[in-house]
């Protein structure tokens, strides 16, 4: 018997992101579709960043989880459009990121390629990213590029801890 | 529109990101500060990821059973279609940054236009890549300004870098029969149409950086039709070594 789609979504919600294991692949918003095509289960996944090395591991983890649940006939498809956005990260996922020490993305703050507003963007001056450890709003950006493609490096000026910010994409 | 023209266009896109991605990756472990090392590695990673998409589609369009990896690792220099600009040596950090900035400003304009491509596969890749490249452009523009409008030493190095790389920038806006076919089919913009956008971005940043672009329209050219500088051969020798020495080796 074919398990229903909502059951499969619940299983996928237990597949952790390989880099940030406190959130699942469904929290990240990268599973776009789950569909039975005849006897084959097709799971459609979108990459976060084009070059994210975790993509292969994510597909393998999804496949391993579903096989462990008894689904032998399955296929994972990649879908590029619409492109993944951090807007798709779930509310619960954002809270779990914060509890893990990663400041969640602030929607609507991705760069648009225009250099006009450069002065306000320098050092992230137009962004207030609360420290995930002490909650202080007195923080500053160290680098727009952090430990993985999806993160920026920030530091708290009150508790003095460095932290990752899951940058808006 | 012939499939051969589309293949040619896609290899131009993919070879630019592949060769620049490889060049930038050469900095890994060597950058002046840790944060820049990480930023360079992340930029290279984005570019290599975009290469997989462009060359993957090129291989699919070609329909001869080749893969993105085959195109990256088993073609010789004469078959590469990247701009000469991206194969320029890294030089010092200033030269690397100036090359990156002039490329990013073009890359962002190109991808923004490609989001409207009549070919939905091209548009999908562009929509994905443009979000990453917006971060590249933001970083390279900021650093060109900080270093150009910095100390006497950093200003001098950035001006020297600009004087050198400027003579390679014009190739981005040259058009040939492939570009005409792409523009006619609505797949890609006429390269010359990107120049005003590029000039606006570059002019604004160079002005803030207190740098002066050379007053010349001269440009080296040839990369887009497979005529390269000697530097590409050295890049390929390193990048393709494993597949050449151990054909068919897999991870």
From TrEMBL, chain A:
Residues covered by the PaaD zinc beta ribbon domain: 119-167
Lineage top rank: taxon: Bacteria
Domain MIP18 family-like stretches: 6-68
Pfam family, one: Zn_ribbon_PaaD
PANTHER family listed in its UniProt record: 1,2-PHENYLACETYL-COA EPOXIDASE, SUBUNIT D-RELATED (PTHR42831:SF3), FE-S PROTEIN MATURATION AUXILIARY FACTOR YITW (PTHR42831)
Protein name: Phenylacetate-CoA oxygenase subunit PaaJ
Automatic annotation (TrEMBL), chain B:
EC number: 1.14.13.149
Highest taxon above the source species: Bacteria
Alphabetical list of InterPro entries matching this protein: Aromatic_CoA_ox/epox, Ferritin-like, Ferritin-like_SF, PaaA_PaaC, PaaC
Gene Ontology MF terms in the entry: phenylacetyl-CoA 1,2-epoxidase activity
SUPFAM superfamilies named in the record: Ferritin-like (SSF47240)
Pfam families registered for this protein in UniProt: PaaA_PaaC
EC category name: oxidoreductase
Keyword entries, A-Z: Oxidoreductase
Protein name: Phenylacetate-CoA oxygenase subunit PaaC
Originating species: Albidovulum salinarum
This protein's encoding gene: paaC
